[in-house]
Write a structure and sequence with these properties.
The structure is a homodimer of 542-residue chains. Chain A has 542 residues and is of the alpha+beta class. Chain A is built from eleven helices and twelve strands. Chains A and B meet through helix 8, helix 9 and helix 11 of A and helix 8, helix 9 and helix 11 of B. Chains A, B: This is Sorting nexin.
């Protein structure tokens, strides 16, 4: 290429110890490489310093049109493979569409989450009539604080439409699912229905997050190794891949409670502690997916879990993004009991469950905040208290040592040893949260996300019921109305099955989490006892 | 009596729920009884309210001279039985001398501590010449904070004179002590000398502090029961008696480290916790006295410990107050090794010990403040942390209980049990200080008092040395000078013996205190382990 000049439009601070170049508004740079990729260019400033900077932060001094002002050197959302379906939405995905290389790019942690309006929900209805109709405000479902990854817009209009509620209940989407592809909901008792049992249960173990780099070390990222028990073939996945997967699961399984991903975080993302914490939260996510009969068998998940070939990855990715059976329309895959459901029973069951999950959500948040608070206190104030105690015994031992007989078995050294013991105990305190409060927090984080998903699922259900009632009022032909009623029931069965799964899995997971927590608490206090017993023995001997 | 009128000179707030009458300056009262005793009168105010008030707070409206304005309804210091010895001091003890009944009066906790100038130190020397001479400022000996009961005025002049240093070194006091009454100091090695061994060691147990009252319940006080092991005869003593004893010990044994009494405290003195705390500190005081060869054998202590007859008590009390062998003059009782001591060795030993006790004092204060801080934190913040944890598990258990199967063996109830366990653990925290930090504090309080006594003892010793040097310069007759040197040495031997006792006893007491502390800490953490293990078992069973 021929080097060319650009003017800086926005300040950019390069990270220290990287090849990034800090640039300031108005500065003129000489671009030496425009093929770095992923939105980066290499250039040289007036002082002769070379480095990388985001291409969108500068403007070619010749005649090139200025780039849009982004907040960060971000990749734009890739053009979806199905961009040709309803051409009217193309614009959402165009503008600087990067090459497919960004499938494996390295800054998904700051990826924008555009709320994609799914094409098949659009065009045929006048949505405005729902806008003031039975809106369910967010305040009905807790403050949703910190549940970014499962929190959805609870405005019924958007939930209902985006989640395919309208399209589904009216039977707009014409997709037929082969009988052997059907997901069968079975009945346990009058009010309990469940997803099929998982036939070949498996686990996936996430190990050794490692820092990998590309672009000759210019960009680095963390890759987690996932090993499914059914094939033992390790795949390497980054947070951005999890994020992509999570988007797909949220889109497709919006009538179910999709477990949350760990929170996004930009700063300090290469700190070991942060990476390990993220690994543990991803493990919780993966565990829940594996144990969910629908998620664990889903194509997109299987693809995520097993694909090792880059070309196949792209194919599978596009296929997942082209999946039409999203949201309520997933019900088209379901084979539910034939029995018609009674509205009153359904409503009371769902209302009870709504109030249950609201209480649970608040209890979980409360325990989680206590857990995080305790974890912090262990590492700060509690440890400091023991440091103070330690220091005092040290001082007393030292003050006495100038007069008493000295040596290992003297009283002053035994008192100094008490100081050492409390310093060790302080260290136990500092180390402890990773054994008890943090794992408990991770499970609670998972369940906070799951719990907070239900109100929206119930809202979608309410929207579908509402729509059915409207249809009933509008004197539809009986056959069509029957279909609508049946579809409503299938959705209800699906939601009942999901509620049941949540309940069963929750009991198992909560029990395990509490057991593990208590065991570690016991170990912790036992360790203190042992350390103090040693100290007492030394004192007895002096 | 004929009722008479008085005018109130000072405000007095009667304690609620007692027969005390609150009175205000200027008010006119009618006195209905002037034979209540102990400084109290009974009267009626203009509103017809009757009650007791301090007689010294009012002035008879007729011709009676106004009483002196005291700060409190205090008994004045009783006229000592030896008031006739040097008549020049009579004035110190006259003015409103109460009847001997005040031997057992009921407000010694606020008794004034008059600094008595002992008669035999006065008259023959011009003390002014010491005033600017080698004053040892308090700052050399720590801040003395909170050591009210052992802290003495470190101004060398007053210490030296008041402690009998001058009188002793110059041989002014002519008292001969029978050979069998002598206290023999023996030599262990070149630098170690000790008091005689205690032949019949005994202990004294302080039990069941009880609230007693007199004046038909108008006045109440706490009586501690002391049972010496040598006779098993219980005596009842109040804080004021301990205080009197302590005064005597401080006067007589000012060349030794007298253990401190618990701090005086007026408010809340009948609270159970306060009473128990004082009992424990009195027990520490008594323990130390019993184990001290000189204190434990002293007449005043034996009198305090065994006297059960009120008449004999008064006799013994007067005798103790008449004891001429006070302060440095106590050395007249001592039979020390003959060998002359080398000034340089003495000085270096005392200097080393001074710096030792200074360091020890600061280390003890530091650990004591940590101990008191931890005790408080156990009962406040730590307990609250566990309450928070408890509350969170309770909430979670409760939130889950609405959906899960209920009953004793359900998961929600097992989680609620975790909440109960942490609430119990919070209670363990609250209860714990009385087993570990508080007993440790009590021992530290004792040793803080003992340690802080030494700088003054050393200052007295320096004063005596100084006086000897002056005498040496003044060409005294050799025989007299020899006596002076010998007396100086005897004092040095006594102080060495005391230092040795302090060292030996300190090792024993510190070790025992640390052992007990660690044992209780171990029990504490074991108790938590046991409680959590129970909880885990309940969880495992659900």
């Amino acid at each position: 290429m021929i080097p060319f000049q650009v003017q800086v439009l926005y300040d950019f601070s390069g990270e220290t110890n990287t090849s990034e170049l800090s640039i300031n508004v108005g500065e003129v740079l000489t671009v030496t490489r425009d093929d770095v990729g992923e939105g980066w260019w290499e250039g040289r400033n007036s002082k002769g310093v070379c480095g990388l900077f985001p291409e969108s932060y500068v403007e070619r001094i010749s005649s090139a049109p200025p780039a849009l002002p982004p907040m960060n050197p971000l990749p734009v959302t890739p053009a979806p493979a199905y961009q040709s379906v309803p051409p009217v939405y193309d614009n959402d995905f165009v503008s600087n569409a990067p090459s497919d290389d960004d499938d494996w790019d390295d800054y998904p942690e700051v990826q924008h989450h555009q709320t994609k309006v799914l094409p098949y929900n659009q065009g045929s209805y006048d949505n405005s009539r729902y806008q003031n109709d039975d809106n369910i405000s967010e305040s009905n479902f807790g403050d949703g604080k910190g549940t970014a990854h499962t929190k959805r817009n609870l405005n019924r209009f958007s939930t209902f439409v985006k989640s395919g509620g309208e399209s589904y209940i009216l039977g707009t989407l014409k997709v037929s699912v082969a009988a052997d592809q059907r997901v069968v909901i079975s009945k346990h008792d009058e009010v309990t229905f469940s997803w099929p049992q998982i036939v070949n249960a498996y686990t996936v173990h996430i190990t050794s997050p490692k820092k990998e780099s590309k672009l000759k070390g210019l960009k680095s990222y963390i890759a987690y190794q996932l090993t499914p028990s059914f094939n033992n073939i390790k795949v390497s996945r980054r947070y951005k891949h999890f994020d992509w997967l999570h988007e797909r699961l949220m889109e497709k399984f919006s009538i179910m409670a999709v477990p949350p991903l760990p929170d996004k975080q930009i700063s300090g993302r290469y700190e070991d502690q942060f990476i390990e914490h993220r690994r543990l939260q991803l493990q919780e996510f993966v565990n829940y997916v594996c144990k969910h009969p629908v998620f664990s068998a889903s194509e997109v998940w299987q693809h995520f879990l097993t694909c090792t070939d880059e070309k196949l990855w792209k194919q599978g990715k596009r296929q997942a993004e082209r999946d039409p059976l999203l949201g309520a329309n997933y019900c088209l895959t379901i084979q539910a009991p034939e029995k018609e459901l009674m509205s009153s029973i359904v409503d009371s069951k769902i209302d009870a469950n709504l109030s249950f999950v609201q209480n649970l959500d608040s209890a979980i948040k409360n325990l989680m905040s206590v857990a995080m608070d305790q974890a912090k206190k262990h590492q700060g104030p509690y440890k400091r208290e023991f440091a103070k105690i330690s220091e005092s015994f040290h001082r007393l031992g030292f003050a006495l040592s100038s007069e008493e007989k000295s040596g290992m078995l003297s009283l002053p050294s035994a008192i100094t040893n008490i100081g050492v013991a409390y310093s060790d105990i302080g260290q136990y305190y500092e180390d402890q949260p990773k054994y008890d409060w943090e794992p408990l927090s991770n499970t609670l984080y998972l369940y906070k996300g799951l719990t907070s998903a239900f109100p929206e699922i119930f809202a979608l259900h309410k929207g579908v019921q509402q729509k059915r009632k409207e249809c009933e009022k509008n004197n539809m032909p009986p056959a069509e109305l029957n279909d609508i009623r049946r579809r409503n029931d299938v959705l209800t069965y699906a939601i009942f099955a999901e509620m049941n799964h949540f309940k069963v899995q929750r009991s198992i997971d909560m029990k395990a989490a509490m057991q593990s927590y208590l065991k570690e608490q016991i170990n912790f206090y036992k360790k203190i006892v042992t350390r103090l017993e040693q100290t007492l023995m030394q004192l007895d001997d002096c």
